[in-house]
């Protein structure tokens, strides 16, 4: 072990923490059956590293060092608790032992099953007993290794709000006695759906930020894609896991082309496809092929990945198979009915059969309560009206869409489109 400076040690600790924190918390949660306690133990090990590594040097296996320190502190806590209970018994009090109390852990046994521990942590952090916001924050904290400050910055949310969500989430898991386990049988499908939803939501917020000055937040896309890949390795027999990986890989492949030189949004049909990442596309298509090999009944993520694949395979916008995309959206609407899916299908139909056909479908959605404040409804309608030469109506739609979006970059784009329609 080489002795390093305090600054170098801190950088090393931060890098190791980002890589190892999920495994560390997962292994400790299996020992303690308490995610809050597991994270506290992991943080104590982190503090110990910051204190000791500048003097002792960075160990050859930093992750194992952190786990060893955290395990020792966990065992000390178990022993302290046992001594406390013995003293209580000596005083003659009758106490029921807590359900979580366990004998001293077997260190050899704890070293095994890292993949199962991670999978347990995934399912626990994404448990449906928590609100969507809490699941997202806790997942980024435990599995992404992000600090509350980083999560707050990514979501443009006050840091105390994020911290409260995480604290409440851990308390809720403890209060509801959510078991630290991998669901089996009939419980697996709904729980897996919750996990996939959380990862998908994190990616989408990074891909098209709902608020703020930036069109994209690449760090969230990267974290979601990393977690999806980890999940695919842990649950390799689940087709929808591979479907989600395929979707995110292909979507992420466009990232460089989605933003202009000044940070402005670049829409799909205007993107320079030479800037699309062909490696990510190949990985996405391979994941899609894997999903298709596992089932004859594709789920929503696999179908969305198939739609993304149609775009990825088209070297030019005019090569896009819009009829295939419209058919896939029809399948998606049958599997996962949603006005948003129908709106996307309308866009595909407009590209396949003309703007009038698409506008007819969009107009059927105008009274949907879910879409009342959804800025993409007037945005799509404005685009179709502009193509039909109805420029005054298109301008009004773009202005309405600009008023509804919370993203400043997108608002600017929509106002420019409104001005263009006004000048036509």
Automatic annotation (TrEMBL):
Matching InterPro entries: DUF6596, RNA_pol_sigma-70_dom, RNA_pol_sigma70_ECF_CS, RNA_pol_sigma70_r2, RNA_pol_sigma70_r4_t2, RNA_pol_sigma_r2, RNA_pol_sigma_r3/r4-like, WH-like_DNA-bd_sf
GO molecular function: DNA binding; sigma factor activity
Residue ranges annotated for the RNA polymerase sigma-70 region domain, each copy included: 23-83
Pfam families in the record: DUF6596, Sigma70_r2, Sigma70_r4_2
Keyword Membrane: no
Any single GO BP term: DNA-templated transcription initiation
Gene3D superfamilies recorded: 1.10.1740.10, Winged helix-like DNA-binding domain superfamily/Winged helix DNA-binding domain
Keywords: DNA-binding, Sigma factor, Transcription, Transcription regulation
Record domain RNA polymerase sigma factor 70 region 4 type: where: 123-173
Positions of the DUF6596 domain: 191-291
Top-level taxon: Bacteria
Entries under PANTHER family matching the protein: BLL0085 PROTEIN (PTHR47756:SF1), BLL6612 PROTEIN-RELATED (PTHR47756)
Entry's family note: Belongs to the sigma-70 factor family. ECF subfamily.
Name of the protein this chain belongs to: RNA polymerase sigma factor
């Amino acid at each position: 072990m080489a002795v390093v400076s305090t600054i170098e040690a801190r950088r090393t600790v931060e890098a190791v923490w980002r890589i190892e924190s999920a495994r560390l918390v997962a292994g400790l949660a299996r020992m303690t059956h308490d995610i809050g306690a597991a994270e506290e133990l992991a943080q104590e090990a982190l503090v110990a590293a910051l204190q000791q590594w500048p003097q002792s040097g960075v160990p050859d296996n930093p992750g194992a060092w952190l786990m060893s320190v955290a395990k020792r502190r966990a065992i000390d806590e178990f022993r302290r608790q046992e001594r406390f209970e013995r003293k209580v018994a000596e005083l003659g009090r009758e106490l029921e032992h807590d359900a979580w109390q366990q004998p001293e852990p077997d260190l050899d046994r704890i070293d095994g099953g890292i993949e199962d521990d991670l999978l347990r942590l995934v399912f626990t952090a994404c448990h449906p007993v928590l609100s969507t916001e809490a699941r997202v924050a806790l997942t980024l904290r435990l599995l992404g290794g992000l600090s509350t400050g980083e999560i707050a910055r990514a979501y443009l949310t006050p840091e105390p709000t994020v911290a409260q969500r995480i604290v409440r989430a851990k308390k809720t898991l403890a209060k509801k006695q959510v078991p630290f386990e991998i669901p089996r049988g009939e419980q697996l499908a709904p729980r897996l759906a919750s996990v996939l939803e959380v990862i998908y939501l994190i990616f989408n917020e990074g891909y098209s930020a709902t608020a703020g000055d930036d069109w994209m937040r690449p760090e969230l896309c990267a974290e979601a894609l990393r977690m999806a890949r980890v999940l695919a390795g842990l649950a390799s027999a689940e087709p929808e896991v591979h479907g989600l990986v395929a979707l995110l890989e292909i979507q992420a492949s466009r990232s460089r082309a989605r933003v202009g030189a000044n940070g402005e949004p670049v829409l799909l049909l205007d993107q320079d496809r030479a800037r699309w990442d062909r490696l990510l596309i190949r990985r996405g298509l391979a994941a899609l092929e894997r999903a298709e090999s596992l089932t004859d009944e594709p789920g929503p993520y696999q179908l969305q990945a198939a739609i993304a694949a149609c775009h990825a395979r088209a070297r030019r916008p005019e090569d896009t198979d819009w009829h295939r995309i419209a058919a896939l959206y029809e399948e998606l609407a049958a599997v996962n009915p949603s006005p948003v899916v129908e709106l996307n299908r309308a866009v595909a139909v407009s590209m396949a059969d003309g703007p009038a056909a698409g506008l007819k479908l969009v107009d059927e959605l105008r009274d949907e309560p879910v879409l009342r404040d959804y800025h993409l409804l007037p945005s799509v309608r404005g685009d179709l009206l502009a193509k039909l030469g109805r420029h005054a109506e298109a301008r009004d739609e773009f202005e309405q869409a600009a008023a509804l979006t919370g993203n400043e970059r997108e608002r600017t784009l929509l106002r420019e489109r409104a001005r263009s329609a006004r000048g036509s």
